[in-house]
Amino acid sequence: MAKKELTASEKMLALHNLQKIDTKIDKIQTLKGELPMEVEDLEDELAGLNTRMTKIEGEVKEVSDELNTREQSIKTSNELISKYEKQMDNVKNSREFDALTKEVGMQKLEIQLAEKKIRQAHENLENKKTYFEESKLKVADVDEQLKEKKEELERITKETDEEEKTLLAKSEKARGKVEESLLKGYDRIRKAYKDGLAVVSVERDSCGGCHATIPPQVQIDIDDQKKMTICEHCGRILVPDFEVVKAI
Questions:
Q1: 175 in Cβ contact with 15 (< 8 Å)
Q2: pTM for the complete prediction?
Q3: What's the rounded Cα separation, in Å, for the pair 112 and 146?
C-alpha cells in the first residue's frame, strides 16, 4: 500500500514537534557546555606533562652519569699525577724528566677541563631539577582541575542522561514522521545556526528566528497551513504557533 501523502498542515506539525524535541536536547547539550572538550584538553595536557617529566628524568640521569664520569676522570688524573711525580724522583736524564713533566701538565689540564664540565653539569642538573619540580606542581594542578571537571561532567551527565536518552528516542521517532526531503532541509538549516532552530513560528509579526518582519499576507498563509513557508531572510521554516503539540 502506498504511503499516505501528508498535508501541509501535517508536515508543519511534524516538523514543529521534531524541533521542540531537538530544542530540549540542545538545551541539555548546552548545560553540559564545553565540559567534554575541557576534560579532553586537560587529559591531553596531563599526558604531555607526564611525557615531559619522563624526559626530564632521563636527562637528569644522563647528567648524573656525566658527573660520575668526570669525577672518575679527575680521580684517574690525580692517580697518574702521583705516579708520574714518584717516577720523577728516579729519572736518569733530563729527557725523561721533561716527558714526565709534560704528562703531569696534561693531566692537570684534564682535571681543569673536567672541573669546568662538572660545574656546568651541576648547573644544568639544578636547572633540570627545578624544571622537574615545577612540572610536578603543574601536573598536580592539572590533575586536580581534571578531577573537578570530570566530577562536574559526571554529575550533569547523571542528572540529564535518562532524559536525554528519552528525548533522543522521541527525536528518532519524530524524524520518521517527516518526509526525507524535508528532513534534509531541516538538518541543513539546524547546522547553519548556533541556536539549532530550523522551525520557528511568527512572534509579534516577526520571524521567531531572525526577527525580520513577516508581511501580513504571508502570516495569513502560515496560519491557513495550506503550504510550507520559508522566511525569505534567514531560510527557516515558518509554522503557526501551535498551542497543543501532538504527542510523539
A1: no
A2: 0.55
A3: 50
CA distance 55 to 37: 27
Q: Which residue in 229, 211, 210, 212 sits closest to 220, CA to CA?
A: 229
Identify the residue whose cell numbers are 720523577.
88
For the CA atoms of 137, 140, 141, 145, the dihedral, rounded to the nearest 10 degrees, stands at 170
Q: Is the dihedral of CA 199, 204, 210, 212 positive or negative?
A: positive
Return d(Cα 218, Cα 185) in angstroms, integer.
20
Please state the separation of Cα 63 from the chain's center in Å: 34
Residue 215 DSSP code: P
- 22 by Cβ neighbours in 10 Å (0-12 / 13-18 / 19+) ranks as buried
Residue 28 CA to residue 6 CA, distance in Å, equals 31
* Spatial distance between the Cα atoms of 217 and 16, rounded to a whole number of angstroms: 21
Cell of 57: 628524568
Closest listed residue to residue 33, CA positions, set 193, 143, 157: 157
Cβ–Cβ < 8 Å for 225, 9:
yes
| β-sheet bridge partners, residue 203 | 206
The contacts of residue 238 (CB under 8 Å, 6+ apart) are 200, 201, 202, 207, 214, 218, 222, 229, 230, 231
Q: For the chain (length 248 residues), average pLDDT per consecutive 10?
A: 71 93 92 87 95 94 94 95 91 90 94 94 93 94 95 88 92 93 95 95 93 94 91 94 51
Closest listed residue to residue 204, CA positions, set 221, 190, 192, 216: 216
CA-only gyration radius of the chain, Å:
39
Which of 185, 157, 155, 187 lies closest to 171, judged by CA? Answer: 187
